[in-house]
Amino acid sequence: MEQKHIGNSISRIDSLAKVTGEAMYPQDYYFDNMLYGMTLRSKYPYAKISIDITEAQNLPGVVRIFTNKDVPNNAHGVLHKDQLVFCEDVVRRIGDPIAFIVAETEKICEEAMNKIIVKYEVLNPILDPIEAMKEDSVKIHGDSNVLYHYKLRKGDALKALEESYYVAKNTYKTHSVDHGFLQPEAGISYVDEYGNITVIVATQYPHYDREEIAYCLNVPLENIRIINSNVGGAFGGREDLSLQVHLALATKVLNRVVKCVYSREESFVAHSKRHAMIMNYETGVNKEGYITAVKAEIIGDTGAYASWGDNVLRKAGVHATGPYVVPNVMVDSYAVYTNNPYAGAMRGFGATQVAVAYEQQMDIIAHELNMSPVEIRLKNILKVGSYTSTGQLLSNSVPLEQCLKSIAE
To answer: Are 235 and 179 in contact (CB under 8 A)?
Structure first.
């Protein structure tokens, strides 16, 4: 069979439009007589709130200020509906949305924002996921801050570690990371010729956006339309809702075109981050340098909301032993609520952070056994016919040995 694409340079269908400036991003759309929207956000990571919009609402040029009272179903989230369209009586992170101002101009939106009175009763935030896991900690959602616990067991890791010639035992930490995409969040909403609430937005999941908007607004799914414009970078950061529901709500109530563009600062506080992780590792080897066991505890700070926390920490647990043959495995990974910025999808989806730990473990073991970093890896890497720690048989295409030997040369 002739391969037309593999090994050949293929022209991207959107390249010409992007290099000539013809590509349309959400902030590039303009309609006659459109309104502008702006979100008021929390200044504190954890606080009780009360809000008074009276003075701001009476400002000339302000069309409407939306709060939680205007949302039929005030909850959303890709896995767990633990986020609010607008916070009601408590904010759980810096940047939590409190109100959405719709006005004739962006300048009037800014003036109105300064006139909204938000009274904060500041509470002690939980910023350490280890503290958050304790039974006597303040609970951010429900009766436990442990959102998700993944367990992986293979063989008898504890016994194997006791019998190992050498055990590398260390704690590794990775920090929260922003996606830093070039195009901050932006969108524009209107009612189309068929009466559908339409939102033009740069998103990674237009079908999820549609479902969440329909639920929040209590509108039939067929009456919600998402147009995915050109996307100026995403890397996981556009998998959660940002301004989609705010825009759709405003258009539904006002039957007007509404546009919103985030500043870089607002983008930083609005969208999810890569999970910060604390990783406690014990890696055992025999005298020859073959891995005997891995015991790992991975604590992922999912922040104030779940987002993709379950999936990210499951994948971190699945990949905790890396590309190595490990006969005995004991892995526990946790997604934990805190009052930090909420964490979700980012390139690698949990597999990136654990690589920091298991690869440093290999270097430490190599040094202890007086081996080269390449030699210790060649002894332990997965090959065709190997089983992964989760029991998957690798039957073909495992080019790790070839790669390592090429690097060594």
So the answer is: yes
